[in-house]
Amino acid sequence: MKSIILHHVGFNHSFYTVNNYHKKKWHFRSKLGWYIGYQWFIDTSGKLFQGRREDEEGAHKKGWNTKSIGICLRGNLQITKPTNQQLKTLQKLLDDIKLRWDIDKIYAHSDLSATLCPGQHLMSFIEKYRQKPIKEPIEKSKGRLAAQLETIRKILLALKLKIQKYLKNL
Length: 170
Hints:
This protein is of the alpha/beta class. It has helices spanning 15-25, 84-101, 109-112, 120-131, 138-168, and strands at 3-8, 40-42, 48-50, 68-73, 105-108.
């Protein structure tokens, strides 16, 4: 995947309601058994639902469904603000996906289509998030730490051998 596209439901519909709507509209079932067009859905409580695998085709933005990961937040974020729990979950999810997929392009649906989606109140978060520097992947920092520990181990081993040799010569 090359990008992430952010959406809002536009109504206060749950994951299950949107899933049923998408089932009737497209009947495009995901490998996970859901019909919702988004890979991820964030409820107002901050609960995260996975509707599709990240590497499978979505149904959230025509022409982008095979090259993007769709994330949808519950609510009409043109009228109401996303909850703190939604934003916390969204931030963690974006950080995680960006690192795993090496993605640097985060789009609002409205960046790609003439729509108000994902709503003005989510746009302020998106604009701030785009300015945020990406954190180093945990795997890279673990790898660097492992290399540093291996270097220290080799130094200690060499020091041990020198001490043993010194003690033999006493």
